[in-house]
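Typical record is below.
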Amino acid sequence: MVVFWFLLGLLFLDCSDGVYVHTVQTIHDLGQGKDQAVAFTALLSKVTTLGSKEVVKYDTVLTNVGGAYVPSTGVFTAPYKGIYTISCSLMSSPSNFVHLNIMKNGNALALLYSASGTYPLASQTMQLLLEKGDKIWIQNYNTKTAKMHDHNAFNVFSGVLITRM
């Protein structure tokens, strides 16, 4: 609280452009806490064949604010308790159908299905109350291999913290 009043005093004592902008930004940062932002979007860079129950490792990371998504494992770990939006899209290769599960701590939450024969697109979006440390990932539902079609466009996994609880 002392820091806040000191910074507020600086705001009134010296309103030159540089100090004013810096002081306002500092007050804003104290109140908001930059470490609270969590958002990620990752996609597949190439056609990918998944093994039985294999986790999808979305290797092209477009956004990873907060660093909660790990592309080498394909797992998002909630850094805070809160309400999150989690989304996934799927496009199979025409040579096969694909079922994917959205998983939370080892339990299936939702299923996506993309048929064979064309390039059908499926998607799911969920709002979830997650505890700190909860893990979310996408995995092959089937015990057989599944070929996913992509070139940085169709198979996407994303999430964002809506609000902390």
Residues 1-31 have pLDDT under 50 and may be disordered. The first strand starts at residue 39 and ends at 43. The chain has two helices and twelve strands.
